[in-house]
């Protein structure tokens, strides 16, 4: 496995000079970044500490040092989901999305062999979301969009969102779906249950909504990847198929749910080789992409650790999941990155 090309598809980034819309608009619901030292900060929402972050969240040099230490060639950068702010006025939401997209684009321009960028859009307004999709994809050279698992309680199969998916299909823009605003969040306040139980359940609901909606029949080239291994989806596939067989109204609109599973992608962030082996069995190795959730506490270290713990994988299957599948999903050529990634780091040192 010498010279294994590794992509960490699931990493988050935020500017240390994050746009302070809470102050600008007098509304503490907007997330803000409060620096606590040169090496860290708190993300505040509604005046309360939402999450502590380190300077790895914004410092490209620190990220690249970590990548070198962990053998990662390329990180795919995406916003922190709390910043989606779909609840907001659409024009103000667009303002924040554009700030983030410009910031991520600037990091990619500084380190084009180490970083690939995903942007964000104000999905609460489909027209504005499509407009920003075109800007970030065609002008900023970001390679896809991270979206939430719901929009103000509307599942991703909501008819108002279909024009967005149609535009992504037409332009060939890959979509990375990340949980946020989880269902039942009022019951998940203790012991970090939102992160450990709520997010996997929320993600499975998002996958199920896409599959059951018929979107993948109407837009067969739509490229969607789901975070955290698709949540609880791999364990629910037989139940989805059973529902298909017992309820005739479902059979009138789609094929068996399992027929769509391999039309989608999933990151490998499930922490456990047995869980990942079940994903491989049910989803296939062509659909799984290594991702760590860097730089947060729940991350897998290093990215792809569980992939390397599965004994029966071939070298080619490992290559796919560690890096090649990510490049296929994003429509990129790994040769454009492998040749110069470590040379760039050597120059920086």
TrEMBL record:
Q: Which organism is it from?
A: Cytobacillus stercorigallinarum
Q: Which Gene3D superfamilies match?
A: Metal-dependent hydrolases
Q: Which UniProt keywords apply?
A: Decarboxylase, Lyase, Metal-binding, Zinc
* Limits of the Amidohydrolase-related domain: 7-332
Family annotation (SUPFAM superfamilies): Metallo-dependent hydrolases
Q: Where is the signal peptide?
A: none
Q: Does the keyword Amino-acid biosynthesis apply?
A: no
Q: What class of enzyme is it?
A: lyase
- What pathway annotation does it carry? Secondary metabolite metabolism; quinolate metabolism
User: Pfam families, alphabetically?
Assistant: Amidohydro_2
Family matches, as InterPro entries: ACMSD (IPR032465), Amidohydro-rel (IPR006680), Metal_Hydrolase (IPR032466)
The EC number(s) given in the record are 4.1.1.45
Family recorded in the similarity comment: Belongs to the metallo-dependent hydrolases superfamily. ACMSD family.
Coiled-coil regions, chain positions? none
The entry describes its oligomerization and partners as: Monomer.
Name assigned to this protein: 2-amino-3-carboxymuconate-6-semialdehyde decarboxylase
Which superkingdom heads the taxonomic lineage of this protein's source? Bacteria
Q: Tell whether Chaperone is among the UniProt keywords.
A: no
